[in-house]
Amino acid sequence: MTAPDNWGWKARIGMFIVGSEAVPEAEWWAMMPPHTSVHAARVSAPAPWAAWDADRTHVSLSEDLARGARQFASMRLSAVVLGHSSSSLVGGKGWDEAVVQSLSDILGSGIPVTTNALDCFAALKVSDVKSPFLVLPPWFNDATLAVALGYFRDHGIEPAGMLRYDPGPGWRDVPTGEMYPLGLGFEQQIEPLYTQIKAACPNEADGVLILGTGFRCVGLIETLEQDLRRPVISANQASLWHCLRLAGVQVKIAGYGSLLAG
């Protein structure tokens, strides 16, 4: 008799994540169905992880991204995702498609490639969410919030509102750029996040979209959906759902919202 070993014989998914984050892998492993696996390549480059050329017709991959892609190319992966919301937001319209093409040039045409933003758009569409309430991490500064709003509008989505999570009095005097280095990423609590989203979600929002792959939140998706009576989509949930479908894995996953359960 053999014991489970998490061998991804149904699907192996490669994921590029921020080098200092633990949340993406933890949330993915919590949601992963049997016989699938996730394999992370860590990236330390600033956003966006691939830089536009002068004409905005092509992107050059950061060193970490190119190195990870070369390693992924030999791993017989079923799909690869660039799991970094900020890169898509800062890169702007067209960046996701350009970086997918550049990664595919290294990985080969047989491996589906996606980005967290493309995953979120696909999840919004299948969930019939047209005016989401955007929820963003506390370490996103005002400029990033403005960029995020413009990014969604550029893609034909008019958010019904926006919330930057308040992590509490111990962090309110800490500049946004210093929150993660000072340890907020490992001190996140989902209960106050639930309370803030429930209180702030406007009636006109037909769903909730929680951005940021390093933003701990999948544990509250199911409860929020039940209380708000509308779809709740998170960055990591959307990427797992989309990657499984790109890999041809059709499976229902309970406990993490209607997107995965459908």
Provide the descriptors you would attach to this structure in a database record.
262 residues, alpha/beta, Rossmann fold, 2 domains, 4-stranded parallel beta sheet, 11 helices, 39% helix, globular
Task: Indicate the topology.
Layout: E1 11-18, H1 23-31, E2 36-43, E3 50-52, E4 59-61, H2 63-72, E5 79-82, H3 85-91, H4 95-107, E6 113-115, H5 116-126, E7 132-136, H6 142-154, E8 161-164, H7 176-179, H8 190-200, E9 207-210, H9 221-228, E10 232-234, H10 235-246, H11 258-261
Parallel strand pairs: 1-2, 1-5, 5-6, 7-8, 7-9, 9-10
Antiparallel strand pairs: 3-4
Helix pairs in contact: 3-6, 5-10
Structure explained in plain terms:
The chain has helices at residues 23-31, 63-72, 85-91, 95-107, 116-126, 142-154, 176-179, 190-200, 221-228, 235-246, 258-261, and strands spanning 11-18, 36-43, 50-52, 59-61, 79-82, 113-115, 132-136, 161-164, 207-210, 232-234. It is of the alpha/beta class. It folds into two domains: 11-117 and 237-252, Rossmann fold, CATH 3.40.50.12500; 119-234, Rossmann fold. A four-stranded parallel sheet has the order 2-1-5-6, with helices on both faces. Strands 8-7-9-10 form a four-stranded parallel sheet. The mean pLDDT is 97.
